[in-house]
Amino acid sequence: MAEDRTSQIKKMGIAFKTLRKDRGYAIRDVGDKIVSASNLRKFEEGLIDISATRLIYLLGRMHVSFAEFVNFVDPNLDTEYSVFLTKVSSLYYKNDQKTLESVIENEAKKYFNSQDEFYLITEATAAALRKNIDHSYVVETSLARQVSDYLMRVEIWGGFQISVFGNCLAIINSETIKTITREFTKRISRLKSSSNNYTEFLLSLVNAVGTMTDRGHFDYARELINFISSLDIPQIDLIFNFKLSFFKNLLFLEKKQALLQNDKLIESLILMNLDQTAAAYREYLNNFYKPNQHA
């Protein structure tokens, strides 16, 4: 069960104190020139929160990465979201719109009753999948705004937050997508493949290419493709490589050549028994060149 912010702060304080004592650090040494000893004690007691930036510096004094700390505080957070994502993705691939809408309604009730942002995220994830099935599906403006606001407040992009961004692209406004993906490209450029969650960043970027192409923001989609193509790309997965090649063909080649090359890509999916995915991209390809499709 996800927790409210007060409970999270208490868990963070307890975890920090446990790590500090386990590693033999005194409060005055860890907090020196970062936060006062009295405020650090209050944080450890769960009485106050501290900024993510200060927390990172404090953890650094103890040679603990932020990712290690998050996992120590709540190893089930990403698992809980992953379980939910598996459930709703199954409904998406079955095209079970009715059940998906019931999930959206249930998660909305959980959020209303608890005001726990975890349920805002699960509601938004389900709503984004529903919209991916049918672009005419109307998502509440308040939900789209709230999940965008949540993502814009993120200071530390861990695997969980990156996954939320990638899964909710369909309901995030284009300016927010641009702002966040620019932050991703800055981080990747600075840290290269040594960056934590490098693969997750790349997957989200290629998904953003698809979303921006859908909305007719071709220049920005091309900008992202050029950035991704300039990187040392690891062997991530089949769909990542397929999407990158598919949209590169679509946005950089003449229509005749793009159709020819993407036909070959789609045929490769069929050969691997990925008929449903192949059919979806075939439909996308046919619709892309319809007059006024992106007007």
What keywords describe this structure?
single chain, mainly alpha, 0% strand, 16 helices, 295 residues, 434 Repressor (Amino-terminal Domain), 3 domains
Strand content: under 5%
- Sequence stretches where pLDDT stays below 50 over 5 or more residues: none
Radius of gyration: 22 Å
User: How many domain regions?
Assistant: 3
Structural class of the secondary elements?
mainly alpha
H/E series = HHHHHHHHHHHHHHHH
Question: Taking all residues together, what is the mean pLDDT?
Answer: 88
Number of helices: 16
Distance between the termini: 44 Å
- Inertia-based shape: globular
Largest sheet entry: none
The percent range for helix content is over 70%
Organism: Oenococcus kitaharae DSM 17330
Protein name: MutR family transcriptional regulator
GO molecular function: DNA binding
Pfam families: Rgg_C
Describe what this molecule looks like in 3D.
- This protein has 295 residues and is mainly alpha-helical.
- It has three domains: 5-73, Orthogonal Bundle (434 Repressor (Amino-terminal Domain)); 76-156, no CATH class; 173-295, no CATH class.
- It contains 16 helices and no strands.
- The protein has helices at residues 5-22, 27-31, 37-44, 52-61, 66-73, 77-93, 97-114, 117-133, 141-153, 159-167, 174-191, 198-214, 218-229, 238-252, 255-271, 275-288.
- Helix 7 runs antiparallel to helix 8 (117-133).
- The protein starts with a helix and ends in a 7-residue tail after the last helix.
- This is MutR family transcriptional regulator.
- Residues 109-282 form the HTH-type transcriptional regulator Rgg C-terminal domain.
- One of its GO terms (molecular function) is DNA binding.
